[in-house]
Design goal:
This protein has 169 residues and is α+β, with helices and mostly antiparallel strands. The chain has one domain (25-165): Sandwich (Immunoglobulin-like). The chain is 17% helix and 25% strand. It has 3 helices and 9 strands. The chain has helices at 2-19, 147-150, 156-162, and strands spanning 31-38, 45-48, 51-54, 59-64, 74-75, 104-108, 113-118, 128-133, 164-165. A 5-stranded mixed beta sheet has the order 5-7-8-3-9. Strand 1 (31-38) and strand 2 form a beta hairpin. The protein starts with a helix and ends with a strand. 34% of the residues are buried.
Length: 169
């Protein structure tokens, strides 16, 4: 009886979030989806959500839902165009290559910490995101990124508190 009640409560909670247009917290789903978005004229681009708390080993899937632009998911790391390292020591950097509309890229992160990433062609437009894997201590410096890419990133504390952080557009 208790298990059924728990399942029904969880299902109702998920349905309620769906009605509000929200996703369940990162830990509740097997795959975390991050949409690559842009407005109709292509002048504004962003990751949705911009900040996510994930568990080590959980799959993160980027989906390009922007019909007018190709996008990338690229780790801040010297291996990616001499960018500053903004992922944990020991974590492998990634670069999705260009994703056309409706294409996806998946990744699993196993090293706990803060991972900042960006879209290669749109970094100067501020298209950057942040993943927090498990519960890291402290927050990375934001001084080494271009100014537009600093603005959209939520603090580590906000991601830990909210689990998923979206930008209202």
């Amino acid at each position: 009886m208790m298990a059924r009640r728990t399942v029904l409560r969880a299902g109702g909670w998920a349905a309620g979030l769906a009605l509000l247009g929200l996703s369940a917290p990162a830990q509740a789903a097997g795959v975390v989806e991050i949409r690559m978005r842009g407005n109709a004229d292509g002048s504004t681009v962003w990751f949705d959500p911009v900040g996510v708390l994930v568990e080590p080993g959980q799959t993160i899937r980027w989906i390009n839902v922007d019909p007018g632009n190709a996008h990338t998911s690229t780790a801040y790391h010297p291996a990616n165009g001499d960018h500053p390292q903004r992922i944990p020591e020991g974590a492998a950097p990634w670069h999705s290559d260009y994703l056309l509309p409706d294409q996806t890229f998946e990744l699993r992160l196993t090293v706990a910490g803060v991972y900042d990433y960006f879209c290669l062609p749109h970094e100067e437009a501020g298209m950057a995101g942040r993943l927090v894997v498990a519960h890291p201590q402290g927050s990375p410096s934001v001084a080494a990124r271009p100014e537009p890419a600093q603005r959209p990133l939520p603090s580590v504390e906000e991601i830990l508190r909210r689990k998923i952080v979206r930008i209202d557009r």
